[in-house]
Amino acid sequence: MSTLIKIWSLKDLRKRILYTIGLLVIFRILAHIPVPGANIEELRKFFNRNEIFGILDLFSGGAMKNFSIVMMGVGPYITSSIIFQLLVIIVPSLEALNKEGEYGRGKINHYTRVATVPLAFMQSYAMIMLLKSQNVITTMDPWSLAISLISISAGTILLMWIGELISENGLGNGISLIITLGILGSLPGALGNTFSLIDQIGILKLIIFGALAVAVTGLIVYINGGERQIPVTYARRVRGGKSYGGAETYLPLKVIMAGVIPIIFAISMMIFPPAIARFFENARSEWLVSVAKHTVTIFNNNTFYTIAYFLLVVFFTYFYTSVVFQPKQVSENLQKQGGFIPGIRPGEETANYLNYIVYRIVLFGAIFLGLIAVLPYLIKNITDIGTMSLGGTGILIVVSVVLETSKQIKAQLTMRTYDNY
Q1: In sequence order, what DSSP letters do the residues of 49-115 get, joined into one string?
Q2: What percent of the chain has pLDDT over 70?
Q3: Which residues are within 8 A (CB) of 208 and not within 5 positions of it... i.e. 6 or more apart?
Q4: CB crowding 173-183: b at 16 or more within 10 Å, else e
Q5: Residue 339 belongs to what H/E stretch?
């Protein structure tokens, strides 16, 4: 309580918190403004019987289920960010721009925002066509389609702007907070549906479910903060009778270095084949119809789906870690700064050592992320409770964002009360 009182007593910090809360409230209001043209009841049934789309709806805070103007959430912006993260590694001109400091990163952020607009139109159109093929949207003429696409795309751009305003003038990462609030926004309804199943499943399974939820949350908090600390020593240099350097520190390598990006990649890959197959279920060619129906049937098989989803998460964890962490570049930077790992020669030997350590850590992190991704399906088999689509992915995002925001608040508090110590 003393910490909360101290936070509230600081005018600047209080304004930042209220500013953040105000913008997040606007997001929740937007999530309940529907776009005309959809049968909301059929739409909710569709998301309830499709677990993977239920997870996507979870990230939008129920906006998809409401066919809201922000139904795509910040998904197109995240997709654009991932694309440019990969392009920075592949395209030499973007890599050079990224090394130009604040100016270069600002230009890349600008390109990311611009690319979000066509991606928002494409993803909105794909979602509307998918819902139309499932008879959720029955009538939509070209004019209504154009209005819907513009409204949904504008909603995504508006959320992107709100997220950046929070990051600049509020507290925490705005985009992450929007996703987290979307996840938490669906929690009360899911809890209500879960408690309504007591008569069917019994109190014992509900207790087991609650115990598993607490245990998984604790494990995620523990693993999320886990890191391997590589000792680094900086050589002592003498200039003009004064010595510089000689410090000993460490290089932190997180267990979950890739975050939730592998799960997002895996979800996209799991959605794509059945979504495309449904477009060809009414084709004229018999073999094409047969392939389409066979594909949908395979992906509706829970055993196949769970195994494929797990393997994809493991694969993308290795892939994305190799993109975001470059042992050779880290080794070169250490060498330029006069740093070295005790017992390891600078240069190529250091890069090989870091590569060896990272791949050992990633193995555990990849398996952990894979289990977190398929957790809803495993819990459903154990407890017969399928109403809580929050699962490990949602908990992982919420835990990461809450811990990061908490650190920022503590840093702001320490900075403003430093004179008192």
Answers
A1: H-HHHHHHHHHTTTTTTTTBTTTTTTHHHHHHHHHHHHHHHH-HHHHHHHTTTHHHHHHHHHHHHHH
A2: 84
A3: 382, 383
A4: bbbbbbbbbbb
A5: strand 339-340
CA–CA dist 403, 397 (Å, integer): 10
User: Where is 163: in which H helix or E strand?
Assistant: helix 142-169
Q: Coil, helix or strand for 277?
A: helix
- Token look-up 């991606």 returns 119
291 vs 408: CA distance, rounded Å:
52
Q: What is the CATH architecture assignment of 1-186?
A: Orthogonal Bundle (1.10)
What φ, ψ does residue 239 adopt, rounded to 5°?
A: -135, 125
Angle between helix axes 174-185 and 391-416 (nearest 10 degrees) is 130
Comma-separated ranges of CATH 1.10.3370.10 domains in the chain: 1-186, 200-388
pLDDT at 162: 92
CATH fold of 200-388 reads Preprotein translocase SecY subunit (1.10.3370)
CB distance 57 to 65 below 8 Å: yes
Spatial distance between the Cα atoms of 315 and 96, rounded to a whole number of angstroms: 28
Token pair listed for 26: 């606007």
Strands 339-340 and 242-245, sheet pairing: unpaired
Rg (CA), the chain: 24
pLDDT digits (tens, 9 = 90+) for 149-195: 899 899 989 989 998 999 888 888 888 888 888 778 777 766 776 77
CA dist., res. 31 & res. 230, Å (int): 45
